[in-house]
């Protein structure tokens, strides 16, 4: 069954009249790109995650790419990354000419294994990119301690975790650079962003997203009002005002979105509590998860994951698998000589993994239907 024919997708944007009105309003103004709404969105997002600065960009991938460039990651550098993530978490390192070095994840939270990370640190290591998997934050205190000891830059790929927190600190305020994706299946929908408390990173990010263009009053005075210089090789990764208006409107609803996501997570947990053959996503003490996905593991001896996946798809339920560990992709195997069994926890998880639908618009009766079909498949 193709994704378009599914009765229930695994994720879906949540757009209401308020969002549509906000976009329409911008369309009637003079500015639809590079206008004042972008800055307003950035201020709201920085305030929500409790960070000093926010630079919006066109996607989560652009955010990762620019975060690496702002951190000065380049040829000869190594960056440590958990193999269990969306491939963008590693591709961004290659865009900068550096080498991604993979590590395994913890079996419970599926976030980066810090003891293994420590072992992989070399003279060439410049940064760690940790992923707050499914919305569950990594162990940031331990990561910060490690990064401080080895003078490494910490990048948080928080594409799944807008609204999550770790020991009462908002995700977005902890790492040196935090990247967000606002792809339609994520907690809010628009482009992407990077938050930081470091002014130098912020200034660099703003140039890099806009072709590397640098303007200043002193340059204008000296050469003329039109003048700008190019300090770094940049890109056109800017967010439009149309997207920023959508972002502001979506962010205004985030508490409601997170509440609904957590209700769906709790309802699944309760329904499957006594069901044999499943491992459910857990929220550890001191963590608060704005769940992006609901990844379960099929450990039943009655049905294999592939059969389970096909059965639910036939029932019109848009299950997914998050993710194929990155080192297992042909490109990465060929380029860096990775092999099967290099990272046993992530690979075992991958063999058993299945993501159930979780999004704000998931109706109670649809979730009941999913729960029934899952139980039925395990019988
Ligand atoms: C962990 C992770 N990193 C990066 C990305 C890339 O984000 P985007 O699709 O907005 O480019 C995604 C989302 O797809 C993701 O899930």
Describe the structure concisely.
By secondary structure, this protein is α/β, with parallel strands linked by helices. The chain is 40% helix and 15% strand.
Describe what you observe in this structure:
- The chain is of the alpha/beta class and 379 residues long.
- Helix content is 40%, strand content 15%.
- The chain has 14 helices and 15 strands.
- Helix 4 (88-95) links the parallel strand 2 and strand 3.
- The two termini are 23 Å apart.
- Pyridoxal-5'-phosphate (PLP) binds next to helix 3 and helix 4.
Structural features:
single chain; 379 residues; alpha/beta; 7-stranded mixed sheet; 14 helices
Bound molecules: pyridoxal-5'-phosphate
Number of strands: 15
Query: How would the global form be characterised?
Result: globular
- The helicity comes to 25-40%
Residue windows where pLDDT falls under 50 for at least 5 positions: none
Number of helices: 14
Roughly what fraction of the amino acids lie in strands? 15-25%
Radius of gyration computed on alpha carbons? 21 Å
Spatial strand arrangement across the major sheet: 1-9-8-5-4-2-3
Q: What value does the average pLDDT take?
A: 97
Class computed from helices, strands and strand pairing? alpha/beta
- Largest beta-sheet details: 7 strands, mixed
Sketch the topology as an H/E string, one letter per element: HHEHEHEHEHEEEEEHEHEHHEEEHHHEH
C-alpha end-to-end distance: 23 Å
């Amino acid at each position: 069954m193709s994704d378009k024919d599914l009765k229930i997708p695994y994720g879906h944007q949540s757009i209401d009249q308020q969002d549509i009105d906000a976009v329409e309003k911008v369309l009637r103004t003079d500015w639809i790109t590079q206008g004042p709404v972008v800055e307003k969105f950035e201020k709201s997002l920085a305030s929500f995650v409790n960070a000093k600065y926010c630079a919006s960009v066109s996607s989560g991938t652009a955010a990762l790419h620019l975060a690496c460039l702002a951190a000065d990651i380049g040829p000869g550098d190594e960056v440590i990354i958990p193999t269990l993530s969306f491939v963008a978490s590693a591709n961004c390192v290659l865009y900068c000419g550096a080498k991604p070095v993979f590590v395994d994840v913890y079996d419970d939270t599926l976030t980066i294994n810090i003891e293994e990370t420590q072992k992989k640190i070399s003279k060439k290591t410049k940064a760690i990119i940790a992923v707050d998997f499914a919305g569950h934050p990594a162990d940031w205190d331990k990561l910060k301690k490690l990064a401080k000891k080895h003078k490494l830059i910490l990048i948080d790929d928080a594409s799944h975790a807008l609204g999550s927190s770790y020991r009462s600190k908002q995700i977005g305020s902890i790492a040196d650079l935090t990247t967000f994706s606002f792809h339609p299946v994520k907690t809010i929908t628009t482009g992407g962003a990077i938050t930081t408390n470091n002014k130098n990173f912020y200034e660099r990010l703003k140039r890099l997203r806009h072709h590397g263009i640098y303007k200043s009053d002193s340059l204008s005075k000296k050469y003329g009002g039109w003048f700008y210089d190019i300090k770094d090789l940049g890109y056109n990764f800017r967010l439009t005002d149309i997207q920023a208006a959508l972002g502001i409107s979506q962010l205004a609803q985030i508490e409601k979105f997170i509440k609904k996501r957590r209700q769906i997570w709790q309802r699944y947990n309760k329904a499957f509590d006594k069901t044999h053959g499943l491992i459910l996503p857990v929220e550890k003490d001191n963590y608060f998860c704005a769940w992006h996905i609901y990844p379960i593991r099929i450990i039943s001896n009655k049905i294999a994951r592939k059969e389970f996946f096909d059965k639910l798809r036939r029932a019109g339920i848009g299950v997914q698998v998050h993710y194929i560990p990155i080192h297992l992709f042909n490109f990465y195997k060929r380029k860096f000589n990775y092999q099967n069994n290099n990272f046993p926890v992530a690979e075992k998880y991958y063999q058993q993994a299945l993501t159930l639908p979780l999004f704000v618009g998931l109706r109670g009766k649809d979730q009941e239907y999913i729960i029934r079909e899952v139980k039925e498949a395990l019988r």
